[in-house]
Specification:
The chain contains 21 helices and 20 strands. The protein is α/β, with parallel strands linked by helices. β1 and β2 form a beta hairpin.
């Protein structure tokens, strides 16, 4: 027997004398280093680890070593210099994701999320047809844990608890009258578990799984056994049937992802033409030891949460409650308090593994893979998430837009002496073009003209209109659709007809909600401002500008900047596409408000 084999024998003897938890924590991280005559050298993680080990287990360790190596054996220690000690959690996880993704196409996020679930101690469900690499995720995940054990099984309606949790020990039942299972090699002793077609399992299996999944406890006869389970990955090509008592088991799977066939043609042909990829061996220093795993779990619990995420969660809870109410309380948008608590731990773990001490919105977005209960609800859930992130800025922009509308709405004159007749006060200062038109200043798309007779008929109420190019005049025209004055495009020699909404405002018109000034003959302020002095209008515009700047600055620093610098290891390109769509929408709203303010400034000049 070689010296290393003798050390393995020592480990076997120690495992028999200690609980599994004690052995995994204190002796599994120890590695054989060297042996010279009577000197045994062991590799331990650190000096602190050695001190705590000897304080508790030195007598037991010494007895076992003497029984295997002989009475003269002397024990020495070497301290680990493995690279993973120097790696940050982020670099460590990034290297594992890269290793697990070898030869895999379009499954990188599923692999990354499975690793995140394992570190967070949560479970994962994969929805998808056969042949989409669902079982591969679990098999590779097991290999990243040093000394990790796995268990996988294809469920059927005929599966029995013996096949999942181990057979009954006949000898103990016969000789000791004890009803216990032999769990070695079965689910209760596995670190990573994969159960395919989980919804086909019978009630006896499902009920036992509830306790194993949630509390990591297995009742073996009269004993309560703590399981080493890090993650259970379940798979099926269908969701749990309704009204069959599967809701509790379904709720235990925090992360739920769809595993489809390869969508990209380039990746598809690369996959079918490529040779089978042999997995490179995972370097020992990159594997996750029990000590590293325990440290990550403890340190991640100290991660705090940013205020922007708190605001987004509040908005999301409100949105989901409204969706649930609209859906007739069918529980398709219901999120239990337990799921929220687990989701918070998942976000903490994500932030920690990404090298941050606070949960930010990139961690929050990962919950889109947790908060759907039905495939049909996914689009609404995605919209609720993106809306919750932009909720605060859009509400602030709505307030600013309301202030602009109030500012642009003509006020009732204080007295007849202060205001000239309607036509003179509203339009006498506008420059006329071709006798019948006013020029709309700063209108997008080039010079655009508005009929002065249409303007005279406008009121504070929004009316319908059309924008078109009149070939005869070679001008862009906006025309109001006034009852009794039918508009026929062919008689107007018009093209590129577009519908618009028009409303009267000071010194111009609101077109699709944006104020536009009409070009004036001179720089005097129109008489429509008689009830509101120019200085007062300028002050109000300046106040609105200040309000807009504060809102946009807050948005840029607390939200937009996070996505600009996003480097979350667990987000996919599809996830970020949702955010980019939302960011573009918010930016367009900001630009629209800015245009409105600039047009108001033009009006009061």
């Amino acid at each position: 027997m070689s010296p290393e084999e003798k050390w393995n024998e020592c480990c076997r003897l120690l495992s028999e004398k200690l609980s599994r938890q004690e052995f995994d924590h204190w002796f599994r991280p120890i590695r054989f280093h060297s042996y010279n005559e009577t000197s045994l050298s062991l590799n331990v993680p650190s000096a602190e680890f050695r001190a705590q080990l000897e304080a508790t287990y030195l007598p037991l360790l010494a007895n076992v070593l003497r029984s295997v190596f002989g009475p003269d054996v002397k024990l020495f220690y070497e301290y680990s210099t493995n690279k993973h000690k120097k790696l940050s959690p982020r670099k460590h996880i990034a290297s594992l994701i890269k290793w697990m993704s070898q030869g895999v196409y379009e499954k990188e996020q599923i692999i990354a999320m499975a690793l995140l679930c394992a570190v967070a101690g949560e479970n994962m469900f994969l929805l998808g047809p056969p042949g989409t690499a669902k079982s591969m995720v679990a098999s590779r995940l097991k290999m990243v844990f040093r000394g990790g054990k796995s268990f996988d099984y294809l469920m059927s309606r005929f599966s029995t608890p013996d096949e999942i949790f181990g057979p009954i020990s006949i000898s103990r039942l016969k000789n000791e009258d004890r009803y216990e299972r032999l769990t070695a090699g079965y689910l209760p002793e596995a670190d990573v578990v994969f159960l395919d077609e989980i919804w086909k399992a019978g009630p006896s299996i499902q009920n036992t799984l509830l306790t194993v999944i949630n509390e990591h406890i297995f009742h073996n006869g009269g004993q309560v056994v703590r399981t080493p389970l890090k993650v259970l990955i379940a798979a099926s090509n269908e969701l749990p049937a309704k009204d069959e008592g599967l809701e509790a088991l379904w709720d235990r799977f925090l992360v739920r992802m769809v595993s489809n066939c390869i969508e990209s043609d380039a990746a598809f042909f690369k996959m079918i033409k490529g040779a089978d990829v042999a997995m490179s061996e995972l370097p020992e220093q990159q594997s996750i030891t029990d000590e590293v795993y325990s440290r990550w779990q403890q340190e991640s619990k100290t991660v705090d949460i940013q205020e922007s995420v708190v605001c987004a969660i509040k908005a999301l809870r409100k949105s989901l409650a409204e969706l649930e109410k609209e859906d007739g309380h069918q529980l398709r948008y219901y999120i239990s308090d337990r799921r929220w608590r687990k989701a918070y731990r998942l976000m903490q773990t994500s932030a920690y593994l990404n090298g941050r001490n606070e949960i930010n919105l990139t961690d929050y977005l990962l919950l889109i893979h947790s908060f759907w209960n039905d495939v049909e609800c996914i689009p609404n859930v995605l919209n609720a998430f993106t809306s919750s992130i932009s909720d605060s800025i859009l509400k602030e922009l709505a307030k600013i837009d309301k202030s602009i509308r109030r500012l642009m709405t003509p006020q009732k004159p204080m007295s007849q002496q202060e205001v000239a007749p309607r036509m003179s006060s509203d339009s006498v200062d506008f420059a006329e073009f071709d006798y019948f038109y006013y020029l709309i200043e700063n209108y997008p798309g080039g010079d655009t003209y508005f009929s002065k007779w249409d303007y005279a008929a406008l009121s504070n109420q929004t009316c319908d209109g059309v924008q078109y190019f009149e070939h005869k005049l070679k001008k862009n025209i906006i025309h109001t659709l006034i009852p009794g004055r039918p508009f026929v495009a062919s008689t107007q020699n018009s093209g590129k007809l577009t519908k618009v909404k028009i409303q009267k405002c000071r010194n111009g018109a609101l077109i699709n909600g944006t104020p536009y000034a009409f070009k004036r003959k001179n720089s005097q302020v129109s008489g429509s401002y008689a009830s509101t002095p120019e200085s007062s209008v300028n002050q109000r515009v300046a106040m609105i500008q200040k309000q807009l700047k504060a809102a946009t600055d807050e948005w840029q620093t607390s939200v937009a900047a996070i996505w600009a610098d996003n480097d979350n290891l667990f987000l996919s390109a599809n996830d970020l596409a949702l955010i980019n769509k939302m960011l573009n929408y918010v930016n367009e709203q900001i630009k629209t408000i800015d245009v409105k303010l600039n047009n108001i400034i033009t009006m009061v000049k």
